[in-house]
Specification:
By secondary structure, the protein is of the alpha+beta class. Among the domains are: 172 residues, PAS domain (Beta-Lactamase, 2-Layer Sandwich); 124 residues, Histidine kinase-like ATPase, C-terminal domain (Heat Shock Protein 90), CATH 3.30.565.10. Helix content is 58%, strand content 17%. It has a five-stranded antiparallel beta sheet with strand order 2-1-5-4-3. A five-stranded mixed beta sheet has the order 7-9-10-12-11. The chain is rod-shaped.
Length: 479
Amino acid sequence: MKTILNLPIKWKMVCMLLIVSFFTLLLACSIFAVNDLRMFKKNMLRNLNVLAEAVGKNNQAALRFEDKEAALQILSSLDAEPQVFYSALLTPNGDLWVQYMPVAKASSDGRKVESSSWISEFIDDRVNISRPIFLKDKKIGEILIRAELSEYKALLTTYSYFGLFIFATALSLSLIISIKLQSIISTPLLKLADTAKLLSENHDYSVRVKHDTRDEIGALYLGFNDMLTQVDKRDKELESYKSKLEEKVDARTRELLKTNIDLKRSLDEKDILLSEIHHRVKNNLQIISSLLRLHSNHTTNTESQEIFGECSQRIESMALLYEKIYGSYNLSEIELEEYLNELVIGLLSSYGIRNDAISVNINTHSISLDIDSIVPCSLIMQELISNSVKHAFPNSSEGVINVSLKCCNGNRDNIELKVSDNGIGLPADWSLFQTDTLGLQLVKRLSEDQLKGKINVDRLEGTSFTVSFPLKEGKHGSS
């Protein structure tokens, strides 16, 4: 079945016609042969019965007078029937009285044959006919005739050869006719298939399939052509839309190129302006810091000198921060660790602290802050580190300062800034809310007002300042 399904359509049609013709011929020949053989048997039985009845009537006198020679002479008349190979006359009791065998093909053992009625039956390859013989309604004997079925077998053989000849001839003619006729159906379908293949290869939807029939295939052609018309129309519309879209894209691309050129020119101008502003801000901060140091050198008031020095240090810290900001690739995320290291070195140097006296450990956990958060954070760290350097380690004692910047409990939206030392600690009566020092007031205001956070002081071991603040919406640290 799969082999037939994989054949081309014309050979499928040929196979279908051959199969139908084969079974039709088989059925017709079978019915004809069975009916003819049945009629042959029926006629043969009728003829033998008529022959047995005629021979039996002719033997009435021989049986009456027990004349065996006359009976044999009458039985010998059956030589005219070639299919009869044995005949016999029996007594009323069924004993053999006389027999005649035209051809020595059978023998009788003289046994008693019981037959009280007419018998006509086919046994193996022969037929037996038995009829009683009456004389004035008295049974005087019985005639038995046995005939061969050679003619029946010959007829069966003839039918077999004749049937094979009919099958071969009819199937050959059916094959030739089906090959010729299948083109009526397969040719239009194959033409339609070739057109579909051509369309898939060339994508030319302007072709049409010609047809001149009004049957189902003609309707299929009409539907196929109508589909091609619609596809061709849509294809042309798509080509038109594509062309218009390409024109719009080209125009938009030219506009974007012009806009990019203008933006690049503007960006270059702003970079130059930003560089100039940065340079001037840095120079101005350096000038202010230098002026403060000059004023510090021209005054003998220790307190004034200290104030001038702290203000100068804060300005230098801001100048260093602006330098780092300007050198950063991304202004929205600025690394603090390098800036803090340079800031610590400058602070220690400004206070005359030996490199091995106070060690400062900085760990920012790779967190980057935006420019709005980094300025107040840097000022807070600068003030807290300066405060630890000045007050936590009196008499040039050694100590450790730890600076940490990390996420609060793994929450990337909240940052924790911590500056701690292992120095002598704060006085017992000290309070952050009542402090009068400018540095710590600055730390408190920057933490609460600028960063919108909270500041906490821990005095268990040394001094620890912790500032917790949220990042502004849309700006997150990275760790």
